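Q: How would the structure tokens look for this protein?
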Amino acid sequence: MGSIPKHFLKKLSPLQFLRLSLLLSFLILTCKEQGTDPAPDVFQLLKVSTQNTTLTSSALNEGIFDDAVFTITFSSAIDTSLVVDNIQLIEIEGNSSVSLGITYQNEASNVLVTPLESLGLNSQYKLVLTDKLKSEQGADFPGIEFDLVTKNGEVQLTGIIINGETLPTSGIKRDVNYETATIELTFSESLNAQDYESYFRLSPSITLTTSLSEDGKKVTLTNAEILDYYKSYTVIVNSNLRSANGFEFDGFEATFQTGLNSTPKFPTITDEELLTKVQEQTFKYFWDFAHPVSGLARERNTSGDLVTIGGSGFGVMSILVGIERGFITKSEGIERLQKIVTFLGNADRFHGVWPHWMSGSTGTVIPFSTQDNGADLVETAFMAQGLITVRQYLDDSIVAEETLISDINTLLDSIEWNWFTRGGQDVLYWHWSPEFEWAMNLQIKGYNEALIIYVLAATSANYAIEKDVYTKGWASSGNIQNGNTFYGHNLPVGFDFGGPLFFAHYSFMGLDPRNLSDTYANYWTQNRNHSLINKEHSVANPGGFVGYSSHSWGLTASDEPNGYSAHEPTRDNGTITPTAALSSIPYTPEESMDALKHFYYVLGDKLWGEYGFYDAFNPTEGWWASSFLAIDQGPIIVMIENHRSGLLWDLFMTAPEVQSGLDKLGFTY
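A: Here is the predicted structure in token form.
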């Protein structure tokens, strides 16, 4: 359209000029609508993803699944007519295109690309978006490529059998033959016959023979040496194993435990010879391993300078056994006992009462716990029981022995038993500390190992308790009575099932339970039935623990896989403690002798050591203690002797103060 002459515009009236301006504006707008389109929009790729993984064009994208679906997200809608020819998935090795299914989402701004066949495993692909793609508005796209590698195939372990039975992948297969363990592992893919062997092993390591089936899918492992018994082994297949076609393996572990090797470990000897052997070997703990300065017993074989009063009380009784059995001479025994008694006279005491632990060199207290750094009445009673028994053994017509008798009496007479009623209460208290006083606040109440404390507290000429302290304190006015039957055996007093077996031992090292009764129990019946209940619990084995039987039993306080604890039928974790069954031999001679033979002949290669039987073992856990404890070794020697000769019972019961104390408390014996 041409220009309007100026002279023409000058002749127009104002109204005519306005009308002309509006007409020109309309014509201009009309011309623009009929002319060329504006520039198209910007078209960008926002993201390409598969299985929640975002792909990158700058690096190799690994681990792509064989059934991958690719989501391609653009900034705006795509021209769908161009997609099929310009989005490609190319398999690199064969340089071939993969057939794709295409769908759209979000008004065609998302393109879903689905391979119409499974991708090859461990294969390289290229996802190509060519530069011929355009937006719906015609915007250009620069093109882009993504390098892909699919996941490798996986080898599956389809079955594992040991000696014809399935080996579970969780838990432990028990009681596997220790002589022959044939393990068959079946895989989903054939293995490489040239290198498969190095990926299979047992831990702990043993020599294996291996074979591969003809189809390459079954591996057979067999032990080339006898396995240890009651031991756990783990079958391990290394995760670096590959199948013949290159598939990967995740790795595998499964555990089994061997059963018992019942072959005798030592030559058979007579029962009497075996009893003597056990006493003599165990005696070495209190003789050879005694503290060189004090002569007292170390708490355990790793205690160094620390000695224990209660365990040493059992130890002085064992010296009498050593003399009578000929392990040492009497003069050697008297010399050692004098060393012990002299040291005790100079050691820390609190109202005549020794601490639980002390230094074997100086006699100064070693705290058993923070507030337990003073008197321990129970440990002191175990020592007093031993000292009374020693005194009754000695001959006052011999000067050295008369001196020892006098020194023992001085120690015994200075124990202030009644002071531990804490101001005249009808009960005894276990602890007192010069620093913390009665902070431990533990009353000695039955029924447990502490009956001997009340008997001895009633014997004192100067510091005796009254009968009410026994009746109301120890016996809780009769509440210690039980009367129920467990595994067919009546239990007169105490906890259900009897508690740990040291209840039947510690008080009765010297106190003779034969025909011993009071208002509440016949103590022979109590201790025999307690022992039988403990044994029958192992036969019943409600916890399903390994190694429990009529000849492998005994629950009491001892070391265990996780430390130290009291074990009993109501608190059982599979830990068997030899002292439990062996120290009950006066009450259960046949049952305890069966246990002794089992511990020595069958388990002796693991359980028998320098100072007799190690403290405990737990076959379920494949655990064997390396420890010896004074409070467990002592009862073995003493109670075997009481079974054989009654030596310690007869000596202790001849003490006049013991008889008067029992009379005072209403015992018959």
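Residues 5-10, 22-38 have pLDDT under 50 and may be disordered.

Residues 14-33 form the longest helix (20 residues).

Upvote if useful.
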